[in-house]
Amino acid sequence: MNTLVAKNSVITLDYHVTDPDGEVVDEGREPLVYLHGGYDDIFPRIEEELQGKKVGESIKVKLQPDEAFGEYDAEMVQVEPRKDFPKELQVGMQFEGGPEEGDEDDFVIYRVTEIADDKVVLDGNHPLAGMALVFTCTVTSIRPASEEEVEHGHVHHPDDDEESCH
Questions:
Q1: Minimal CA–CA distance to 38: which of 166, 161, 150, 164?
Q2: pLDDT tens per residue across span 78-128
Q3: Which has the closest alpha carbon to 57: 23, 13, 101, 89?
Q4: Is 24 helix (H, G, I), strand (E, B) or coil?
Q5: Domains, the chain, ranges and CATH?
Q6: Bridge-partner residues for 58, per DSSP?
Q7: Which of 23, 57, 107, 154 is most solvent-facing, going by the fewest CB within 10 Å?
Q8: How far apart are alpha carbons 114 and 123 in whole angstroms?
Q9: Which distant-in-sequence residues (6+ apart) come within 8 Å of 131 by Cβ?
């Protein structure tokens, strides 16, 4: 059977991501499984490059920041009073922030990037924002998506609980 990557297929990829200098950013320990066909499960440029590929075929795609995790936005950095945070606070911890004005569904994950005497610096940018990235991936399996997966717009894993996907 010569199945190709096509709309409404569930694709499994072995992948790794580097910066343009070859430094590993994500070694892809777990395979990436996504629903192909414009469901925003994967970056659009990667999806375009994978279209029509077979199991065993590989692609290498260089993404500019605006095609990956976005440009770095200095306005996403906030300085907050230390007293507003738990006593046990470390750089790298994450907190959920409220939605932006007019974007009621969009909660932002802020990372603690610095802790000074009475101030905490929070960064709402994705850790890879502002970086060009090189994705190298190999198609390891292709299967038709179920009607339910297509209806919901994402892959269902056998251990998913039905409630978690609505």
A1: 150
A2: 999 999 999 899 999 999 886 555 555 678 899 999 999 899 999 999 999
A3: 13
A4: strand
A5: 9-69+129-159 (3.10.50.40), 74-123 (2.40.10.330)
A6: 138
A7: 23
A8: 9
A9: 19, 25, 65, 68, 69
